[in-house]
From TrEMBL:
Gene Ontology CC terms, in alphabetical order: endoplasmic reticulum; Golgi apparatus; membrane
Family, similarity comment: Belongs to the PRA1 family.
InterPro entries per the UniProt record, alphabetical: Prenylated_rab_accept_PRA1
Keywords per UniProt: Membrane, Transmembrane, Transmembrane helix, Transport
Membrane topology label: Multi-pass membrane protein
Organism of provenance: Capsella rubella
Localization, UniProt: Endomembrane system; Membrane
Function: May be involved in both secretory and endocytic intracellular trafficking in the endosomal/prevacuolar compartments.
Protein name (database record): PRA1 family protein
BP-aspect Gene Ontology terms: vesicle-mediated transport
Length: 188
């Protein structure tokens, strides 16, 4: 009679999912984030535009408008970058767009571990691979200047908008107030 084998218990913090499930959940997270953008008419036409009177009000406007229009600003920067890349070369736009999509899918919007060929890929390996792919894409397409110009113009437009748009009359939504620390919890 053979002695029983010792049993080991393994505790998993998350269930490894196949790569296709990780990609579909990442796409879902991306689309849900983009769907939270504010209406474009509210960004452009509503509100009062004026110069801030004090430096502290300028900083408050920057912070308030940044939090309120964050997704819109990200779309504006992405559009300016895309326009700058397409003027350089359509190939550059496709290559850099693919790299950005990989970053979004495999780093920013991924919730579950990445499994490739039955192996779990660590977060550090994913980031290093994405950085190397990004460097290769910028070198291959010679688009570093165009990327910098596009991002710079997009950021400049967003900063100008957030400085001149008066945010004094805007009411905070409950979620924004909680995340901004303006509303505390009554728990003791």
């Amino acid at each position: 009679m053979t002695p029983p084998l010792p049993t080991t218990t393994t505790t998993y913090t998350s269930i490894p999912l196949p790569t296709s499930d990780v990609i579909s959940r990442s796409i879902h997270n991306l689309t849900s984030t983009i769907s939270r953008h504010r209406p474009w008419s509210e960004l452009v036409f509503s509100g009062d535009y004026s110069l801030p009177r004090r430096f502290s009000s300028l900083l408050l406007r920057l912070k308030t408008n940044y939090h309120y229009f964050f997704v819109n600003y990200a779309i504006i920067v992405a559009a300016c970058t895309g326009l700058a890349l397409i003027t350089a070369s359509p190939v550059a736009l496709v290559v850099v767009g693919t790299i950005i999509a990989l970053w979004l899918l495999f780093h920013f919007f991924r919730e579950d571990p990445l499994i490739l060929w039955s192996f779990q890929v660590g977060d550090r390996t994913v980031v290093v691979s994405l950085v190397l792919a990004s460097l290769w894409a910028v070198w291959f397409t010679s688009s570093a200047v165009n990327l910098a110009v596009g991002v710079g113009i997009g950021l400049l437009l967003c900063i100008i908008h957030s400085v001149f748009r008066n945010s004094d009359e805007r009411f905070l939504e409950e979620e924004d107030a909680v995340t901004g620390g303006l509303i505390g919890s009554n728990r003791r």
